[in-house]
Write a structure and sequence with these properties.
This protein has 621 residues and is α+β, with helices and mostly antiparallel strands. It is 56% helix and 17% strand.
Length: 621
Amino acid sequence: MALALPCAAAQAAPAVMVIDRVQRLASNERAPPDAERAWLPASLPDGGAANRDRPQPESVWYRMVFNGPPADAPPASWAVYLPFFYDGGSFWLNGLQVASVPESSATVQVRWERPHLVNLPAALLRSGENALAIRAAALPAGNVRRMPRVSIGPLDALQPTYDRRMFWARTLPQITTAVCLLMAGFVLFIWWRRRSEMLYGLFGITAALWGIRTLTFVIEQMPVAQWHLWRMAYLGATGGFVVLMAIFALRFAGIRRPWIERGLLLYALVGPLWLGLQGRAAEPFINRFWSAGLIPVGLSVLGVSLYNLLRQRTWAAALLPAALVFPVVAGVHDYLLAWDVVPLMAALPHWTEQRIFLLHHGANLLLLVMGGLLTVRFVRALSALEQLNFTLEARVADRERHLAANFSRMATLQQQHAAAQERQLIMREIHDGLGSRLFTSLSRVERGDMDEAQIAEALRDCIGDMRLALDALTPGEEDFRVVLGNFLFRWQEQLEDAGVRSAWTIDWPEGAPPLAPQRLLQLLRIMQEAFTNVLKHAQATQLHMALRPWAGGVEVEVQDDGRSAVAPQRHGGRGLANMRARATQLGGELIFERSDRGTRVLARVPVVAPSSTGLALQTIA
């Protein structure tokens, strides 16, 4: 039966014609059915709730008539614009196919979220009446047929509308997916290094899940074998995003309820696991009821954020609920739109027929706010760390000043202590050495035990001791080689008078640490005792003295060619005992060797007394 076709352009062709009156015929034919077939009048948009539960194994043809450009109009390209064409199909103009959109098959599943703009060849476009036929593909089980209003007109007039829809429906999701996955990787890396910052971990996983969910606007074709797994991943990403957002809001508000968090996570897993167990046939039921259960979760998130705002009353606490309002409302809107809920369709008929889903835009805003809050939190942590470093540096500097003052005081005390020790040693040297000898000589003179020669020898010994002490203890005489030279000069005369040829070897480098005066005096005493023994007991003809560096100190060797220079058994051993005692007192050692070739005395003395180092360390501690 032939029906009078509604004509969208009875008079002059408008710039863009929006076709909402068509003829409709269910048929799997690949070419447009003849006009004599049982075409039925229909209106666009077609489908939705009216045929949700009806099997739709056949493709559907939509036939419409429009007036082309006037014959005298400037040449211009014309096109057909569809805001969505989910399941694909083909376009025919005046009986010839002009375009096709891939549709689902036995091996490929399609879901076109992008708009479509089909050019109409100028050779087929008539200046008068034109017939456009669109075949909407047969639907897989569970899908709902939706055919939007069709816009026809000049390409230049339709292109901006197509571009806007293409950006929001296709380009922006691509950007969202890339940004979410990159941001998730960055934030999760921070969380991996700082596991105590749980909010970063929640935000990173939430961003990753949202990036995966947004792929539903990016991936429009997929092998049938993988479609079921993809839908499970989609449901898991959707539920995981909402649930983790709720846990983030709880943690951000300082609320920690493990049983609530475990319950939410369990609910997020129910949807994808249910689909995995029941198969594709269960997807409509899961989408309707399990997805509806996410709405109260979203509303609870908003409630928790408002509660946190009342408690904290800060701009940061106010920012999160303000950002949550849009995605929560958008989520409810998308659910009502997806299931063609009558109140929404009746209240906003022109808006709902465009099928613009808002949740992914609201979620993007929410993720930006969550990222901003964490960034502010991160910057504050860095500021606090910087302030802490400043405080620590100030404390360290103050401590260093205290330590420097303590070291200065300790150095002064050490100098005073060293001076006191030096005075005590000089006093003891005078008392035990020169004083004792003078006192003993005086006593012997008073008793008449000494003749003039003995008195003169005693006085020469006292003068020698005094010179030795004066040379060693003279202030400002830090180079002990000068003192040593004076000492050897005096002894060389005495040795030559005794018929002993002497030789000195001084191997002391420039810049080597000097001996302290008292230590030098004790070392000279050892050498003095060794020379005295050579003169008195050795009957030697040659004497060689060598001075050279030793590990951490100085080494003095006195070698003669006489008989044993020391006869402890006959002289009571006081000379050798005194030399060894002096060396030990200085922290060194004395080695005495006798042989047929003579006697060798080796004294090793450290430059710095071990006791003074220990005292310094003890004082610092």
